[in-house]
């Protein structure tokens, strides 16, 4: 059988990949990787970059390029057969990773290179690759005794399986809930775009009327605009109890035990490796030095933000009471009354804004912005192999007309697609004897799709999301590092990886950029000055409440990993309640099971690292303040950011890169100023 996952094609042949191809391809490539490691570690001459690292990186790149499309289609066109094949491979990949991390001959070979006279002659990226590898050997248990190493392998496999199961449960519980509506009066207040989507969803199920779902565009529209409080309460309750013990409709996808098991296994893994807890282990690959530094950072921000958050909430309560005679603000009322308040005080309607952000204007506008910043040209390619008809494909060229990279764009929500937005690498840059390998990225969002003959109309928040993910994409694509382990986003310290993405969001608030990315979807008329002024005035609307909410998530994540005690029962919701008691200004219902669908920390890479969003936002705000001083499209400032941040990948520590760009270490004031918390 010809297996498309084993071809040497530069791009994945998505239309040819069948679930039956997946496990045989991964088995074959894992054996190939093992064979190369065995051969290279048995050579008799001194170990070097050329005879050890190069061949290993080359074969592992083949494995990565086969697994990447598998992992991707599991997220974007999920079905039972793909899921089964994907899950069959997870323990094998985990076993291989741990096996390599505990391969003493391989560790000794890397150690020999690091201590050889030739090490000083290697370039920065090569040296960093070897230093990171030695660190990762230690974090994989290279120094453990055989019995401990065996236990480490068991833990790693189980963690991999549990994380995948957690995400599946969230996906299944989300898509299991539907509400069929035939009385249109229940939809009062809901925008036409959402109604049209709900009608289309109902028609797909051969039903009349409207079908509401928990897909995020639908959920958010109900929470923000539905005049019917009972409908808001019903969908809030369904969303907030997904995959939990308190929702009888989704009890078969309850994540309670998975969460407890994940925390226990992470703690055991950390203790095996000589750390006191998983938070300490997590920081071994991050910019922050100690758990206390992270806690101090988050609590300092929370104390400085709480007064503003309380003022935000008091004003909202007062507004709801005066204008709508609502004495008690429930959790399902916050978004609704916030939008009413925004519309009244700022005369700003999110739906009115949508009309000026058609995807047909935003996407070319985004490309113009990066052209003005970095001199890049982006061209669409129509002839390519895709996993869904919505997907588009682009190439990026620099000022010298050199191809820098490519990316897929998959913008719209649909069934069997994981929620949220993300960038992932399809192909990573490397350069060696076989020539230059150009990087390729996946950019995935879940926006409301186009309806009828109209283009997709994006909310301003969705525009910000698109810019955010594109920032990740540029970080991956524009790297000039030639070594796989530290090119693009590879090897970047996790609490700095959000710097380029959050940095790009700033252009969504700048008048010269907004003029480029907006225009009425029917007439092309520019965003009216009055509407622009209202948007800018609303930029920090309830920013104190938003800041506190993000800090609540960050502190919760860090503390459940820092303070886990295997002798006591689960600390998940007691920890969350204690943090809310200290900092939150909004009362959360007792039935809320937010953590049961907190995929970032239970299924993603953010365990004891969710604080990275705020840490990186500090870096991005301070980096952008240089553009504010020198001009938001200043070509020299753009060139410096490109050179010092985007092109260097993980080849240099993130703080050194930041200082090289900014001329100093970051200041917290820029973050507070950008959020309107201090003037």
**CATH top level assignment of the largest domain:** Mainly Alpha
Q: Nearest-angstrom radius of gyration?
A: 25 Å
CATH architecture of the largest domain: Orthogonal Bundle
Q: Helix segment count? A: 26
Would you write up a description of this structure?
This protein is α+β, with helices and mostly antiparallel strands and 679 residues long. The chain folds into four domains: 4-101 and 103-139, Up-down Bundle (Glutathione S-transferase Yfyf (Class Pi), Chain A, domain 2), CATH 1.20.1050.40; 178-242, no CATH class; 256-346 and 543-610, Neurolysin, domain 3 (Orthogonal Bundle); 359-537 and 613-674, Neurolysin, domain 3. 56% of the residues lie in helices and 7% in strands. The chain has 26 helices and nine strands. The chain has helices spanning 19-40, 49-76, 80-101, 104-114, 124-139, 146-176, 192-204, 216-225, 229-240, 256-272, 278-283, 291-324, 334-345, 350-354, 359-374, 460-477, 499-505, 511-517, 529-537, 543-562, 572-583, 599-602, 612-630, 635-646, 654-662, 668-674, and strands at 178-181, 210-213, 377-381, 392-397, 403-412, 422-427, 430-432, 435-437, 440-447. The protein has a five-stranded mixed beta sheet, with helices on both faces. A two-stranded antiparallel ribbon has the order 1-2. A hairpin with a 2-residue loop joins strand 7 (430-432) and strand 8 (435-437). The model has no long low-confidence stretch (mean pLDDT 96).
